[in-house]
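Feature request, filed as a ticket because there's no other form

It would be nice if the structure record came with a short human-readable summary line next to the tokens. Right now we just get the raw output. Example of a typical job, pasted below so the devs can see what we mean:
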Amino acid sequence: MQFLLMGQPGGEGGGNPLTIFLPFILIFVVFYFFMIRPQQKKQKKHQAMLTSIKKGDKVVTNSGMFGTVWGIDDKDNKVVLKFGDDLKIEFLKSSIAGKVNKD
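Raw output as currently delivered:
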């Protein structure tokens, strides 16, 4: 009789592996849909904008400088921006934050 009351060997450590890992799976799903996926969409949109810039577009850099695209070097991934009448500066394409409306 005493043997029947003791329970199964291994006792409390068992359990369904799915119920153990379910909270971790749910946390990963929440992180994916609220953090990872929107960031990937934003990055793809920015990359599409960078590939679509052309000479004459008005852009703003990550540092807040406004300029006009004067030249593009796709081989070295550089853009030459014109500021004012005679000032031209080279930037990496990735430092372009976005296009500015011509209005």
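Something like this underneath would help us a lot:
The longest strand covers residues 66-73.
Residues 24 and 30 are 10 Å apart (CA to CA).
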